[in-house]
Amino acid sequence: GAEMNRQRADSQGSLGPNDEVMPYSDDETDDELDDSSESEPEERREAPQPPVDTRPPEAGWKVKANDRAYHQLPEFQKKIFLCVKKSRYSGNAIKTYKYNALTFLPLNLYEQFKRVANIYFLALLILQIIPEISTLPWYTTLIPLVIVLGITAIKDLVDDLARHRMDKEINNRKCEVLQDSRSEKVIFVDIPFGRLVLLFFCSPQADILLLSSSNPNSLCYVETAELDGETNLKFKMGLRVTDERLQEERQLAQFDALIECEEPNNRLDKFLGTMLWNQERYPLELDNMLLRGCKVRNTDYCHGLVIFAGADTKIMKNSGKTRFKRTKIDELMNYMVYTIFAMLILVSAGLAIGHKFWYDDIGSKAWYLEDGKSYSADHRGFLSFWGYIIVLNTMVPISLYVSVEVIRLGQSKFINWDLQMFYQEKDTPAKARTTTLNEQLGQIQYIFSDKTGTLTQNIMQFKKCTIAGQIKRVLVLQPVDWSWNRQADPKFSFVDHFLVANVRSKKDKDATEFFKLLSLCHTVMVENNDGNLVYQAASPDEGALVTAARNFGFVFLSRTQDTITISEMGNEATYEMLALLDFNSDRKRMSIVLKFPNGQIRLYCKGADTVIYERLSPNSRHKDTTQTALDVFANETLRTLCLCYKDISESEYQAWSRKHKDAQVTIADRDAALDRVYEEIETNLMLIGATAIEDKLQEGVPETIANLAKADIKIWVLTGDKKETAENIGYSCSLLTDEMTIHYGEDPQRSRFISYIIKMQIDFVDMACECEAVICCRVTPKQKANVVTLVKKYKKAVTLSIGDGANDVNMIKTADIGVGISGQEGMQAVMSSDYAFAQFRYLQRLLLVHGRWSYIRMCKFLRFFFFKNFAFTLVHFWYSFFSGYSSQVAYEDWFITLYNLAYSSLPVLLVGLLDQDVNDKLSLNFPKLYVPGQQGRLFNYKKFFISLFHGIFVSLIIFFIPYGAFLQTMGQDGEAPSDYQSFAVVTASSLIFTVNLQISLDTSYWTFVNCFAVLASIAIYFGIMFDIHSAGIHVIFPSIFTFTGAAPNALRQPYLWLTIILTVAISLLPVVCIQFLYKTIWPSVGDKVQRNRKRYEMELEEEQRKKKPPAFQRNRPSRRSAYAFSHTPGYANLISTGRSMRRRRGGGEGKPERIRRSAAEIRNSNVGSVSAREHGGDDAALRVRVFIQLHLL
């Protein structure tokens, strides 16, 4: 019982905070964040620390093993609507889709009509059906509306079908469960609460209480990459009572325990519960739980009890709310549409008032205008108002929205098809998972990045070392041949042949002692799979060090509770382990006390140089030379670790051992008592040397960060690591430089620092945003999201978050743009992201090339779209002054219908898809080209009003020049073709030429497609116009096609062609002049690059030919690299208690024959057992401590 209640090492080790002190909830909103800022400090000070071995204070969740009827009791029912009740225990199905076959049409239409524009066009359609006010046929609005709704619905359907497929794949996976004393396979969706499951090398699809496993003491190794972003193995353990009594299926079938625990929540690092079984109550904690999302490793099988399922699992609770994201341009466009609506109403009201006065003065007195209706002037003015609403509605054409959707879809496809963002090693292309945010990529101001797995490869490599003051340098570039060592790991790469030869010669005692220490002083556990040694390390650093010793001939073979066996250059030796002094975050070191075969007692110690140097003996040699070597390693941003030893006499050990045993049984503050005893023996150490491990950066990370910084993008790193590790990576990836002044912001009351930040939100954001770079350390997933929220809220900045683990999901969802890296840490981040790719370096291409191009294209498209519709629509306005304000249209009905659909849409659409001011290489080489997007220079209210006035000017020219030409003119046949229909043809033709030539002037990147689109648009206009003006179609539909012969009659007059040419020339001439003056006198950065494009391209090609890989050189003697060591306590507790050692189980041979056979089959099918991966972990901290590192400009 006493052993059951012991405090276990935190096997999760990444999220850090104690939730009783700093609770976090991913379901908080920004408003809740504000509301809680003042009350949280008091609440946290009063928060009690519940003891582990008592019932949880709020045990509102009960699960009964092997009793399905228990969970259907009335007390577990909840009301969902009126008298309809539903069980609190939801099924295990995962549902992420939005629609089904019945709800798709109504729900999708409801969502689409949430758009004000769609409602507006629906109202227009209704108005056009009313004969009294209809001035245009109903089909002019219905056809575009149906096309827009249809395209959007198809897009939503395709997206939702993908979600359906994904849900079906997950829900239909199979698992073995215990049913009526026998096991059977069922799909995951059918696993209910309280069901016992049997897992073989798979990922649990529910939160499961571990009961027993194939390993000793029901130990189970798991990888939690999708939960906390770490890929090193962790251990879970069943209770001793379940380990001893629940091994056979018969025993499991009779298991009837009642589990009482906390309600489902999103706390990944905490679980409290109790198990009531046979009148005894047993405490449950996180180490007993296998959470959904983790992967079972190096464990043949395990039995478990389903506690949380489906949406109640911690990973689903932790996924946060899906936030609807929209771009800045979307918001701006909506405001502009509202502005146009206001203008439309004002203009229509003004014209309606004009019609009222005109009817009083002229219309009512003109007998030839009598329409047989006895309406008053006010009534006619009212009808004219609605008529002009219909006539002028094309100022906001519905085709705008469908065109925007098409452009965004095309831009997304270009990202997907970009071969320069394709990662060949893993066959992973870039993926735009959304089609609505592309132009926002060109406006990013802040990037929030995870560290582990995002900036780094999550792989540790033993690079260099110093032994007895001598740095073992690289002398030969050829990798060492390890064929002389049968136990060597072939994946281990080293290039210092001199060091290898020195160790093999056995003449250098210091080198021998160095690698012997690495093979003995650790908490690594080993498994022998058919002669292949598989190491299971608590941290990737420790695994890298033991692997290095293995390759140099000092191979860790096995261990028991009190011995450790190694092979020393082929000679096997067993050492008695007298004590194992494990690592923790305060000690920053670990030691082992060994008794050699000759009776000698020696302590080996390894740890951070900052703590080792304080404990060295005055007689220790090589201190200065080793410190110099540490500075050299630090300059190369390697993670360092000092190695030392101490010989201990028998009497000294016996005296210390008694104190150690007393400290081990101390009830109050046991950890502090042990630390004091450890301090007594870890003194007067003799220095041997130091190791240097590289936490490898991803390829191209420093160059990417440097290039993004030149684009005025501020980069913040948010990580769960401690500050030494984060600072080290900051230097290695060029986020930090020697020229920067580093400020460390750390509140003395560490557990309340987050509360302090939240309370002082504005000051914090103002201070941090003045810095060139910020590193936030020891942060939880929710705190990452909070930091992003603060910057969005107070700086109104466009933010991007990038990460690769499930612990980054909340941050990714909170930012304006979320980017997931499909790497070592599962697919949770990718599934929640807006964009995904395999390497961090692709981020600069995504932003500086695709993002900038998308922004430029969308801005150019919108400016021109507004211009061409103002120019088109306002001709009606000028015409109204000559038509008695009678809502008469200036064009033919079919021209109005097809103007935005066929006559002017294709060229501007292609500009929105293909245009680029400079190519991709120059975009990357001149990051300053990105700045206009951040400042929103290319599309804003100023640009909108310029487009408005440009449209007003062109509409004036298009109306009044033909009007003047038609006033006093004579045709070749002696007749004056000054009729309305000929006038409409001339104005329409002038407009089509003007807008298509205007987009030609605005096109920066010409292709055959652009040229074809301009010519084809003009050709389509004339082709359709001559068809609908023909006599044949008029005979078939006399009431619909009324402009019979108008086009052939008008366009055979040469002077009307001269009128069209004059109109187009006067419309375009001011634009040409203004563009020439701006690019000559006030050129932008883009204009300068464009002007010298050929020269820059030649220089880039020349640089590429001469480019050599730069030698990595830094000079930072004052900075100490982070120590390369475990971030979490190791397996010392397991080793010293013997819980990891094999033993015979009571009651037979152990696992039944069927399980042995199944496990063997699975093992055989998984060739290459998963070993402890060399990937970095986050810091384990049971208190909330956020370290903010501020780097002032």
Describe the structure.
The structure is a single chain. The protein is α+β, with helices and mostly antiparallel strands. It folds into 5 domains: 89-170, no CATH class; 173-319, Calcium-transporting ATPase, cytoplasmic transduction domain A; 332-393 and 861-1087, no CATH class; 410-455 and 697-742 and 756-848, Rossmann fold; 460-695, Calcium-transporting ATPase, cytoplasmic domain N (3-Layer(aba) Sandwich), CATH 3.40.1110. It contains 41 helices and 35 strands. It has a 9-stranded mixed sheet, sandwiched between helices. Strand 22 and strand 23 (563-568) form a beta hairpin. Helix 14 (509-520) packs across helix 15 and helix 32 (941-967) runs antiparallel to helix 37 (1054-1081). The protein is elongated. It starts with 29 loop residues before the first helix and ends with a strand. It comes from Kryptolebias marmoratus (Mangrove killifish). This is Phospholipid-transporting ATPase. Residues 1-60, 1099-1120, 1136-1157 are annotated as: Disordered. Residues 830-1084 form the P-type ATPase C-terminal domain. Residues 25-41 have a biased composition (Acidic residues).
